[in-house]
Amino acid sequence: MLNFTPFKGVLFDLDGTLIDTIGDITYAINSALVLTGADPITPQVCQQFVGRGLKNALRLALESSGKAVEEPQLNHLVGLVIETYAVSPYDHSHPYPGIEALLTDLHKAGISLGVLSNKTDSLVQPIIRGLLGHHPFIFIRGAAKEYTSKPSPEGVYAFGEQLGCSVNQLLLVGDSEVDYYTAEAAKMRSAIVTWGFRTRETLLAAGCSSLYDTVGELRKGVFPWL
């Protein structure tokens, strides 16, 4: 069976793909919004803002509340968001149904697993350790000053270099147009899921293709040999 495996590695997005983290993200962002006098947002509203890092999500949340802040204040508020988030990074988060079985089967098939997220790296690491630490990810990268975030393909290339393979042997699985654009920039195959933080309609409007509504559909369409 392994001779027919088309991938050496699968690189997953974190939020909205592997793990439903929107409850913890919303709580952390609301902790900063209330300091500006803005009304708290709901998880349903918050999920429209995520995908390009916490700073961008907070900026969009403030704009949606009619609150304009200067860059220094925004940076200060982002620091507070990260501090709040770090205290309890996965209290209200959990892997999506079927994800853990998929990770197990991919590993058994000899496929290397990685995570590439635009969430701050200091949050990505404990979330993966706390909720999926028993799965053998060989590459885990979040946003940090020394890295260029998605949709830059830099993280994809780093994953491929670690595996010693070309992007043709990699798959990127994500839930947003940012992940799709990353794969397009890297000229690699992608699988975009609709169970996360973007609706199918939003993804289609952004030009995304190869959409999968469930883990079962993803298995059947991309990993039929598992």
What do these coordinates show?
By secondary structure, the chain is α/β, with parallel strands linked by helices. The chain folds into 2 domains: 2-20 and 93-222, HAD superfamily/HAD-like (Rossmann fold); 22-87, Orthogonal Bundle (DNA polymerase, domain 1), CATH 1.10.150.240. It has 10 helices and 8 strands. The protein has helices at residues 22-33, 43-46, 54-64, 71-87, 99-108, 121-132, 154-163, 177-186, 200-205, 215-222; strands at residues 9-12, 19-20, 94-95, 112-120, 137-143, 170-174, 189-193, 211-212. Helix 1 (22-33) crosses helix 3 and helix 1 (22-33) packs across helix 4. The termini are close together.
- Elements, N to C (H/E): EEHHHHEHEHEHEHEHEH
* Number of H- or I-type helical stretches: 10
Any idea how many domains? 2
Distance between the termini: 8 Å
Largest sheet: 6 strands, parallel
Strand content: 15-25%
User: Helical content, roughly?
Assistant: 40-55%
Overall, the morphology is globular
Counted beta strands: 8
CATH fold category name of the largest domain: Rossmann fold
